[in-house]
Design a protein that fits this description.
- It contains nine helices and 14 strands.
- The chain has a six-stranded mixed sheet, with helices on one face. A six-stranded mixed sheet has the order 7-8-9-10-13-14.
- With 255 residues, the protein is an alpha/beta fold.
- It starts with a strand and ends with a helix.
- The model has no long low-confidence stretch (mean pLDDT 97).
- Helix 4 crosses helix 9 and helix 5 packs antiparallel against helix 6.
- It is globular.
């Protein structure tokens, strides 16, 4: 049986996600923004928490760990380069390591930039990737602990995954990301289609994630910094993609 996922809201604009293996009953929370919301989601699904897979150390992704670990005795897996700031980590992982949730297997992808040790969890058989705050639908994370060059390399790793990969990110930022993206590529038809789709989803209270990587590659300017038209749009025609990406990120910061 294939994996089951359950997406729900936490805190102000965070997403929580549960990944469940029906064969073994194992269930992982991707990050732990808020224990209460995760407890409620588990109860609604009738699942028991066995694992927490942490993408990075920020408090809005880790605050619920102590309470959840005390209640369920779950195993906490986190990035090797951020073990100290994260309370309760049992196992650390890095690039290409494999994490198991029951019979499900995730490959770890190191994606520094938002934080120095940020990681993503890619479940290739399930065609899903949990990217934390590295990549958002039509956006990307702020560069709190990395350079534009570092983050661009991380985004290229994610961009190289199969086009039908579903992307689960950590926040509901799509609407504001689209407003910015349209200032860069106002004539991008894929972006305009995504804007309309997002408008419809939000109008009926539905989340805008997961998104699909193939669609993001056509509409997300932060994945398109090596496209000549993007470089020209920000006045950097012919410049390296990492420089173009950095300019995009700075413009988004000011938007």
């Amino acid at each position: 049986m294939s994996a089951q996922t359950h997406l729900f809201r936490c805190l102000k604009d965070n997403f929580g996600v549960l990944v469940h293996d029906p064969g073994t009953g194992a269930t992982a929370a991707i990050d732990a923004p808020e224990a209460g919301a995760i407890n409620a989601a588990l109860a609604a699904q009738g699942w028991r928490l066995t694992d927490i897979l942490v993408t990075h150390h920020h408090g809005d992704h880790t605050a619920g760990i102590p309470e959840l670990k005390a209640r369920y005795g779950c195993r906490v897996t986190g990035p090797a380069h951020e073990k100290n700031p994260i309370e309760g980590v049992d196992a650390t992982v890095g690039e290409s390591d494999v994490v198991k949730v029951g019979s499900l297997e995730a490959q770890v992808i190191e994606t520094p930039g938002h934080t120095a040790g940020h990681i993503a969890y890619w479940f290739p058989k399930e065609k899903i990737v949990f990217v934390g705050d590295t990549l958002f639908s039509i956006g990307c994370g702020r560069l709190f602990e990395g350079t534009a060059e570092t983050m661009w390399r991380s985004l290229l790793k994610l961009r190289a995954l199969p086009d039908d990969t579903r992307i689960y990110c950590g926040h509901e930022y799509t609407e504001s990301n689209i407003r910015f993206a349209l200032t860069v590529e106002p004539n991008n038809d894929a972006l305009k289609r995504r804007a309309e789709e997002v408008r419809r989803l939000l109008a009926v209270g539905k989340p805008t994630v997961p998104s699909v990587l193939g669609d993001e590659k056509q509409a997300n300017p932060f994945l398109r910094a090596d496209v000549p038209g993007i470089a020209a749009a920000v006045g950097l025609a012919g410049k390296p993609a990492a420089q173009v990406f950095g300019e995009l990120r700075e413009r988004k910061n000011r938007s």
